[in-house]
Amino acid sequence: MNLDFLDATLALLCAFAFLAGFIDSIVGGGGLIQLPAMLLLLPGVPVPTVLGTGKVSSVAGTAAALRRYMGQVPIRWRAVGVAAVTAGVFSFVGARLVSLLPSELLRPLVLGLLVVIAIYTFWRKDFGAIHAPRLPERKEPLYGALIGLIIGFYDGFFGPGTGSFLLFAFVGLFGYDFLSASASSKLVNVATNLTSLAYFAYTGQILWYIALPMAACNMLGSTLGARLALKQGVGFVRVLFLVVVCGIILKLGWETFKPV
Question: Do you know which InterPro entries this protein is assigned to (predicted)?
Answer without folding.
Answer: TM_pro_TauE-like, TSUP
